[in-house]
Amino acid sequence: MSATTSRLKFRYIPVRKPISVSKKLFTGLFGLSIAFTLAGCQGVGSNATSTSTTPTIALNQSSVNLAAGASTQFTATVQNISSTAVAWSVDGVAGGNATVGTITSSGMYTAPAAAGSHTVTAAIVADSSISAKATVTVGTTAVTPSSVLMAPSTTQQFTASIQGFSNTAVTWSVDSVSGGNATVGTITSAGVYTAPTAIGSHTVTATSTADTSATASASVVVSTIAVTPATATMIASTTQQFTANVPGASNASLTWSVDGTAGGNSTVGQISASGLYTAPAQSGSHTITVASASNPSFNATATVSVFVFTISPTSAIVAPSASQTFTASIQGISNTGVTWSVDGVSGGNATTGTITSSGVYTAPSAVGPHSVEAISEADPAASVSSPVTVVNAKLTSVLTYHNDDTRDGAYLEEVSLTPSNVNATQFGKLLAYPVDGQVYAQPLYLPQITINGATHDVVFVETQNNSVYAFDADAATAPGTTFWHVGPSVLGPSVHKGDTGGVNPNVGILSTPVIDASTNTMYLVVETSNTGPQATPFFLHALDVTSGLDRAGSPVPINATYNGDVLATSSYQRMGLALNPVTNWIYIAFGDSPHGWVLAYDKTTLAQKAVFDDTNLAAGGGLWDGGGAPAIDDITGSVFVMTGTDYDDQWVSAPPAYTQTGYNDSFLNLNPNTLAVQSYFSPDNSYTLAGNDADLGSGASILVPGSTTYPLVTIGGGKDGNVFVLDPNNMGGFTDSNAVIQTFQMCTNGYDNIYGTPAYWNGTIYIHCMNNVITAYQWDASTAQISTTPQSKGSLVYQMHGASPSLSANGAMNGIIWDIDNSNYIDATGVPDGPSVLHAYDATNLATELYNSSQAGSRDTAGVALKFTVPTIANGRVFVPTSTELDIYGLLLP
Q1: Helix, strand, coil % in the chain, rounded to nearest 5
Q2: What DSSP string runs through 168-237?
Q3: What is the mean pLDDT of the chain?
Q4: Which CATH number applies to 226-307?
């Protein structure tokens, strides 16, 4: 029978008279009966008063003050029941939570982070109606400021904030010393702390009297701030790292300002949270301040003197042994003197080039990059420098395709030929040098070289029959003089390919060589059927221009492999060779093969240095550029080419998916040392170009001077007639809309437009599209845009492939545009039909044709026409390559 539910039950028994029981006796019996019944049931009747057997529960503490996050142990004592298990809760939540505090099954309570009052309940599991409760008051104590930097013997007011407790009084201590002392600093009952005289780190503690377990601390550093450097002299717009040293502070919170402005600004200079100062563009003196974030009066300063230091020119390209004057300007400090060095050598030397105290730099005789530096006398740590490249050049020479590394086609040292004397009366064909094969390579010209003990001006010609000729460039009458000739017996027989690739019938030396004037070495590529054990038809030769003999180590076979791809023996080496003055490497491009390739060879050792495969594991990307050559930025050494395509080589899906594989139909900016792609552009209509065999790389690109925004710009176009203007360092990649500086539909002859290299002179771009006339467009360097309205035009339409114009001028005067009309070349049968025609136009107005080689009857008739030929102009002569001869034009003898 349950002790809490038992009840006494009475049965009514009727009593008949005359039975009679005394009241006393009845009472006694009744009481005895009740006692018996209670003893047998162990229950509590409704009138029971005894509690000795009632289950009870009690807690060890009924109320407690507790700091936020602190813990206290509750213990529940359960009596008068066999099962003593207890369930814990906080504010009715079993086990509690983060808001009200948590309690474990053993009664360990952990207060929440926020102040407040909560109820802890312990209930008997066997009967949850029996429980005990305790009140927990959670309080927080905080000290403001939480950290501070202080100078010795200074004071700081600390304030204690108590929440959750009604008693907000605190006691103060320093490093556990109540009230502190002289060693650790003292603190009053009001929280005023006086720092000691010695440097050190100390802890100020406020202890709540409501609960001695609630404390908070503030880190105090007794110190001074030191800024390094304390003074600095800086060049405008450069940076200087300042550091703050706070002895004894492991994590000091500091702020930086310039002339009282937090973080500074563009006028006074800007400083980062870490103390990196960027000087303004103007000269001046400024104060750098570092301060405690919590105590701005605790600070230190440094003084900065900013001066403007510039060098002019900011970069230079000079010929071997030539001079360039540099000037240095200093504003903002009294001592404006400088000293000069080259490549870190004071005054330079014969290897680096020399520089005088007045800044006149004289280049060494070798090609290569250097750095001219001006050093401030007032502050030797301050300097400005200018990159200088000694390029492959010689006065009045033509050493490479289209005259120089920009491929602008301009010969600016012509003093004999002018618009007034280039006419059929005064100008014409002087003589022709017969050759043994087609001359696709542009003639090269090297003046004042010694051959057989005498000094001569020499023009060099290469043929498809693997012959190289050195002719007297000054000859005025036939037959002229051949200084030397090396042919197929030395260089190997050419390869018979029929009409493959539009070159017929033999292929030997197809590309324009390059001459290193500093070593008198000509570099050229020969294709020969004498492959030998190398199993390659391609060989790189380094010939002595004075004799035609191979240099030591020459020739070397040309092979290339990259990630499973192999340079095909069926390839054409059609693009001209390039000598990079930054790396002193020779660059060779291949096309009309499964892949486009660019190879780099050391000019001295002829060792292969780098390989680039533009469609690795894909196909296409051939490099031919109408016979042009890679353009080179002579300051950075970057290499620029335009690639072609074969049908569907570039794409694995049609628009709009546009899945691109490799670099077909692309402008490429290649790293000079690795040949890795640094930037590229592929037109948004590349899929269509591929489907129509409309190579972008049928033409070649040139580099032209730009503006501050675009110091150098590359320009080029291909078969679809679009000309693109590109930032060489950010070409635009491949997008569904051409992300370039400018796109200009310059030629409109379907998919047969540009097959050559434009020319540039005096802010004008010259281009001659197929089935079109020579056209000039104004170039605006400030906007990096080509005017879409022609500046002037010629009147004669050239049929086959248009032309690659060249220019002669005396600096900015007497400009003449020269190009060759090869409309008479018919390659369908492989048999040329008629002569090439040389044309000369006034460069300032192309409507004025000065001369053409058909005006004087047969007197000036050139050799048999050949496509993609480029005239060379030098020293009063115009050299015209043809299928059968080299023709030389000049002023006629009186």
Answers
A1: 5, 45, 50
A2: --EEEEETTEETEETTTEEE-TT-EEE--SS-EEEEEEEEETT-TT-EEEEEEEE---EEESSEEEEETT
A3: 89
A4: 2.60.40.1080
Q: Is the pLDDT of residue 47 over 80?
A: no
Please say if the pLDDT value at position 15 is more than 90: no
Tokens representing residue 380 in the block? 């030797």
- 140 to each of 62, 74, 314, how far by Cα in Å? 21, 21, 65
52: burial class by Cβ within 10 Å (0-12, 13-18, 19+)? Answer: exposed
Strand 180-181 and strand 185-187: the pairing is antiparallel
HSE-CB at 27 with a 13 A cutoff on CA atoms is 3
Q: Which helix (H) or strand (E) holds 23?
A: helix 23-41
pLDDT score recorded for residue 296 = 83
Provide the token pair at 13: 């028994």
Say what the pTM is: 0.77
Question: Please, which pLDDT band fits residue 44 given cuts at 50, 70 and 90?
Answer: very low
Q: CA torsion sign, 33 to 39 to 43 to 44?
A: positive
The CATH class given to the 313-390 domain equals mainly beta
Pick the CATH number of 410-891 from 2.60.40.1220, 3.40.47.10, 2.140.10.10, 1.10.300.10: 2.140.10.10
- pLDDT at residue 85 is higher than 80: yes
Homologous superfamily of the 56-139 domain (CATH): Immunoglobulins (2.60.40.10)
DSSP letter string, 861-879? --SB--TT---EEETTEEE
Does 145-222 match 56-139 at the fold level?
yes
CATH class of 145-222: mainly beta
Residue extents of the structural domains in the chain:
1-54, 56-139, 145-222, 226-307, 313-390, 410-891
Average pLDDT score over residue span 320-345: 96
**Lowest-pLDDT choice from 58-67, 71-80, 373-382, 500-509:** 500-509
Show the tokens assigned to 754: 């540009």
Written as six digits, the tokens of 361 are 């730099």
**Cβ atoms < 10 Å from Cβ of 388:** 27
Type and span of the H or E element at 30: helix 23-41
Q: What is residue 209's predicted lDDT score, i.e. its pLDDT?
A: 84
User: Residue holding tokens 């509750």?
Assistant: 74
Q: With 80 as the cut, is the pLDDT of residue 648 above it?
A: no
Which DSSP state fits 262? Answer: E
Would you state the structure tokens that stand for residue 258, as one six-digit string? 């310039």
pLDDT of residue 23: 39
- Alpha carbon distances (Å) from 817 to 18, 270, 758, 850, 863: 162, 53, 11, 9, 20
Stated length of the chain: 894
Q: Which of 844, 856, 848, 842 is nearest to 889 (CA)?
A: 856
Which pLDDT value is given to residue 506? Answer: 87
Contact status, residue 54 vs residue 15, Cβ threshold 8 Å: no
Question: Mean pLDDT throughout 209-230?
Answer: 78
Residues of the chain with pLDDT > 70: what percent?
Answer: 90
User: What is the structure's pLDDT at 89?
Assistant: 96
With a cut of 60, say whether residue 653 has pLDDT above it. Answer: no
